[in-house]
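Reminder: ligand-aware prediction takes two inputs, not one.
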Amino acid sequence: MDCIFCQIVAGEVPAEILYQDEEVIAFRDINPQAPTHLIIIPKRHISSLTHLSEKADSFLIGHMVNVANQLAQKEGIAESGYRLAINCGEWGGQLVPHLHMHLLGGRRLSGKLG
Ligand code: AMP
Ligand code: ZN
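Here is what comes back for the chain with zinc ion:
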């Protein structure tokens, strides 16, 4: 398995893990774009948003949002505000082909999305 995020899940690549349960794991981005920049991923390899199954994965994606909200509280950025972003595919800016959600905050973010 040459997926970097699967290697983090397996403990083969070090990461600053802030949360994990049976379904998801969250860690600090190695190249932060904001004072708080966390990555939330499913432990199971799903390539991208396009590969989510409506029936099987609706709980998972909701759970990822809930975990991100809890981490925003822990990081002390819930009040000031934050952004959740999921890039999908080449033109969506997705570089790591394992579904992941960015949690960004700790400064006023650019209003630019694309
Ligand atoms: P994306 O462009 O949406 O695919 O974002 C991939 C993100 O993963 C980038 O923000 C990278 O800095 C981050 N990243 C890549 N490798 C690692 C790693 N080993 N540990 C933590 N974050 C990583
Ligand atoms: Zn993977």
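The two ends are 32 Å apart (CA to CA). The mean pLDDT is 97. We will return to this case in the review session.
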